[in-house]
Amino acid sequence: MTAPRDIKQILTDFIREVWSEGDVEAADKYIAPGYTIRHDPGDPWEGKELDVATYKERVRTLRAAFPDQFFDIQGLFADGDAVVMTWLWSATHQGDIPGFPATGKRITMSGATAYFFQGDQFVGHWQITDRLGVFQQLQMAKAGA
Question: What's the CA gap between 94 and 63, in Å, rounded?
Fold first, then answer.
C-alpha cells in the first residue's frame, strides 16, 4: 500500500524550490501539462492556461526584478484536491520593471493562493494579493523616500 500524498508538503516544497530558491527547472515535477490561472488580478497570465514551459517563463519573468524573493508561508489549509496558502512575500527590487527602474529597496506583500491538484501536480491557482501595496512601495522607492 502506498503512503497517502501530503499535498501541504508538496506545496511547501514547490514554493521553496521554485519560487523562493529560483529552481525553475524543478517546476517540471510540480506543474501539470495544463495549468490554469483562474483568478489573479494584475497578473498578465490571468485567465490563461499555461503549459510547463510557459509556466517556467512566468517564474523567470517574475523573479527577474526580484531575484532574492522569499515566500514565508503563514498557513496551509487543505480540502480535497486543493490547498489554500496564506503568505508574506519579501524581495529586493534589483531589476527594472515597466515604469520602475531597479531601486535596491526591499518590497513586501501579502496574499492568499488556492492551489488545485490533480494527482501530485498543480493544475491551477486562484489568488488574491496586495499588488496596490507593491505599487505604492515602488512609487515611494522611485521618489527616493
Answer: 10
Q: Scanning the structure block, which residue is given the C-alpha cell 489573479?
A: 40
Assess if residue 85 is contained within a domain: yes
Type of residue at 125: H
Sheet architecture: strand order including 82-92:
49-50, 31-39, 121-129, 106-118, 82-92, 70-79
Q: Is the pLDDT of residue 145 over 50?
A: yes
Contact 134, 110 (CB under 8 A): no
- The three cell numbers locating residue 93: 527590487
**Domain-embedded: residue 112:** yes
What's the rounded Cα separation, in Å, for the pair 54 and 24? 11
Inside any domain, residue 19: yes
pTM of structure: 0.92
Q: What is the pLDDT of residues 58-114, one digit of tens each?
A: 999 999 999 999 999 999 999 999 999 999 999 999 999 988 999 999 999 999 999
Q: How many CB atoms lie within 10 A of CB 62?
A: 16
Residue with cell 499555461: 50
Structural domain total, the chain: 1
CATH code, domain with 67: 3.10.450.50
Range of the domain at 101: 7-142
